[in-house]
Amino acid sequence: MLPQMYTKIARRSRHGIMTVIVTLADRFGDIVSIANSHYNLLVSWSPDAWESGTWTLSKDRLFEYTNDIVRGRFEPLSPDAFERLQSLPALFAYEQTCNKPARVGRITGIAHRYDGYGLSFELDSGVAPILPAHLESLQQALDIDPRYELHRTHWAVKEVALASVMQNAGLVNPQATLLTPTPPQVFLSYSHDSVEHKAWVQQLALNLRNLGVDVVLDQWHTGPGDDLAAFMQRSVTNSDFVVMVCTESYVSKIVNNTGGVGFEHNLVTGQLLRELDTSKFIPVIRQSAWPRQVIPSLATRYYVDLSDGQPFREGVEALARKLHKMAPVLPPLGPRPTWPGFGV
């Protein structure tokens, strides 16, 4: 029998949160984010390209030798798209004329220049250098065109699990760290409206953890004697995302700038003013009345509605996809049509 504090939650809908957590785990238990299933392939003509920690590439070389469907997952090239690209592990290879071993690592920064991109990167010392002959034997597994691709400087994205290929090739040792993507860290901000609401938030956190999200929650990460103001400041500042659970009480506290919620929102507002186009702060609605009340500073933001009567599972899935920076696959773009009697 469920503990009393969970009874209302379990009865909320036919699926109920306690049921939903299992349903989501079943459906997404084997979820592989784009960072696990794709990798960046960077090929350079320069024999010392991967020794300095920085590299430049002209814009027209991005996505060469990339499947159109894979390319569509990163277009249009928005800030979020570049974040997804940066989250992928990378194979740093040389053109064949260099006759130098390829390395595995990650892109750590992407600078946008008028004629291209400036990349910073780090190499993973836990993955052995890949000698040219060995790389040639792995070209099919890595989706590298054996005829031309290693004869041209470019940046491609491949739908291949790089970690699996490296492990199967015996190139990975226990010290390898960069092949495994870091799970997104997400701070759950909410108001302590009731015991039942605190339990609801905890179950939401459990759902997200089951979907590979590293949730920061006061119920798990604070205890007697802790400095709560420092915890809130650290959580808002250091987390990749802040999910703001907007009940009527939560919105009221923000509008009136009261309590811990008001303090957290002051931190949020400061970052919003510095980064106007950030998508770090995500409103989640849990309210009973219409119209929904929203935080003034996030009034134009796309929110996830997890209120009673709304499709809970679909909402949590949408939230998890955003936190993992997973983009929908765009359908193929058809050719330009022609009609009789109309010019080209």
Automatic annotation (TrEMBL):
It comes from the Bacteria. Residues 183-315 form the SEFIR domain. Residues 182-323 form the TIR domain. Coiled coil: none annotated. This is SEFIR domain-containing protein. PROSITE patterns: SEFIR, TIR. One of its GO terms (biological process) is signal transduction.
